[in-house]
Amino acid sequence: MNPAEPFKWRHYQAEIILLNVRWYCRYPLSYRNLEDMMLERGLEVDHSTINRWVLHYGPELDDRTRPYIKPTNDSWKVDETYIKVRKKWMYLYRAIDSDGNTLDFLLTARRNAPAAERFLRKVLLNDYTQDPRVINVDKNPAYPKAIEKLQKDEDLPERSKLRAVKYLNNLIEQDHRFIKRLTKAGMGFGSFYTARRTLKGFESMNMIRKGQVKGVEKRDVMGQISFINNIFGVAA
Predict the structure, then answer these.
(1) Residue range of the domain that includes 35
(2) 57 to each of 101, 128, 149, how far by Cα in Å?
(3) Is residue 57 within 8 Å of 6, Cβ to Cβ?
(4) Do 55 and 194 touch, CB atoms closer than 8 A?
(5) Is 173 in the same domain as 79?
(6) Element (H, E) at 177
(7) pLDDT tens figures, 153-196
(8) Residue 162: strand pairing partners
(9) Which residue blocks in 110-169 are alpha helix, DSSP H?
(10) pTM, 2 dp
(11) Opening angle at CA 215, ends 236 and 136, nearest 5
């Protein structure tokens, strides 16, 4: 895709494509729901076409949003939730700060120390995150091993403290619900590829919804729409 012309050669207007991607990534709708909603507007768009748009532009939304994310704080809450892919459970690692802001996410096939380490390294690489003062986790034994390895490699400061107290992670468990509602509406995923790309759209839209991007507040729906249009170069 040409970054300067992300909608070149598409048969539908950029505004229609972004509308469908935004709605699918924001609300618990199926592709067939969106197909019917487009018909109400006098547009015939097959649900499979909308699916292709989400798979194509969901990751692009994630990439284009990240440079605008506000800095997060140094109190991390890390947890994983379950996502069904081809009738098998996969693991979506997620982290937020103590204000509820999303730090990052990672879909993996395994729930072990190497997966936890890989996820934490991903979080640390973000420009908008800072080294954690404390990392709150549940009793999953993978986290102490992952953090020990990161500190041994000097990728995580020695001053970063691990706190394995389950009730302290209630905030992130509540935060999982938004993503779970969206995946439930889609009836799971047919492949790891589609799950990974779709979840990027879900999570980036969730960050925008929370007011995590610069210049757009949490409940400023019109501002959020304008932000998405602007990062894709679409006139309001």
Answers:
(1) 14-68+193-231
(2) 23, 22, 35
(3) yes
(4) yes
(5) yes
(6) helix 170-185
(7) 999 999 999 998 877 788 999 999 999 899 876 667 999 999 99
(8) 135
(9) 113-124, 142-152
(10) 0.93
(11) 125
